Amino acid sequence: MTPKKPQSMGQYLKGMTQVFQDDPLTRIQEGKDGEEMWWCDNCNYVLVGEFEGAKAAIEARGMPLHMAQCRCSDIERRERRKRDEDFRSSGLPSSRNTFADFQPRPGTEEAYATARQYASEKLSPVLVLLGGVGAGKTHLAEAVGNQMMGQGSVVRYVQGSGLLREMYARMDSASSSLSDYIRDLMVARLLILDDLGTGAPTEWAQGQIGDLMDDRIQQGRRLLVTSNLTTYEATEAKLGTRIADRLFDITSGTVGQVILNCESYRHWQEAIR
User: What are phi and psi of 46, to 5 degrees?
Assistant: First the structure.
């Protein structure tokens, strides 16, 4: 004889519904809609803390209270902890930089609209935002990262100077720390390289960055690059021909590029006061 499959706690509790409702100890105060409310709509466990008599009813039936009561607070706690861990792992400087609090100004409209589309994964896998200091490139890059994290994507954010620092520190390591670091950047759904060009990479570092970019492009993984180097010539002089070719490859359909032709946010704020 095949043994009966054990019920889950949720199934067991649902099976106890009529027993509870027929028991005088378990009569629950009526909800606003006039219906007796017993079960949490989200987790299907008893709303112990919400209605009089629920705790007494569970205990009277000899059920373990901690296994019967609503789990939503525990679920929310676990989800919040996971979100916090994911955010720390992402490297994003702030969770507060979103599209909602970006203030579009003359010269930023196209970048703002493009970044929003890119965050919804509607555009080509590579997006390059170019512009001067204070133009809003970093804010938009973080907004993309925060939105995609909210959509469940793994995100990695690293500044150009920080990328070089990590590479140089791991270059002479006897362990596989450099390859582990690069692999972590590779597997993310979205990689943000912010302010690429703030440092002067060696030929070796240019090769590492070029390999990273090529691998992500070939695998169709999303890459968002910001830089204050707004011309091919300036980018080639600072980062080398290979990286410049990737960032300015706007005819292949793989790379989308937007230049923010605007004054800095601080100067704009001072002007409108």
Answer: -70, 135
Q: Are residues 186 and 211 in the same domain?
A: yes
Range 235-255 burial, b when 16+ CB lie within 10 A, else e: bbebbbebbbebbbeeeeeeb
Same domain as 180, residue 52: no
**Residues 224, 254 contacting (CB under 8 angstroms):** no
Token pair, residue 3, equals 């043994």
Whether 98 is in a domain gets the answer yes
Beta strands per DSSP E along 132-221: 155-159, 190-194
Q: Are residues 204 and 139 in the same domain?
A: yes
- Give residue-wise pLDDT tens across range 153-194: 999 999 999 999 999 988 876 666 888 899 999 999 999 999
Q: Give the HSE-up count for residue 29: Cα atoms under 13 Å, Cβ half-sphere.
A: 8
Q: Look at the pTM and tell me if it is higher than 0.70.
A: yes
Domain that holds residue 49: 9-70
Closest among 257, 200, 199 to 226, alpha carbons compared: 257
Tokens of 266: 């601080």
In tens, the pLDDT along 69-89 reads 666 667 777 778 888 888 888
Task: Sheet containing 255-260: give its strands across.
Answer: 155-159, 190-194, 222-227, 126-131, 255-260
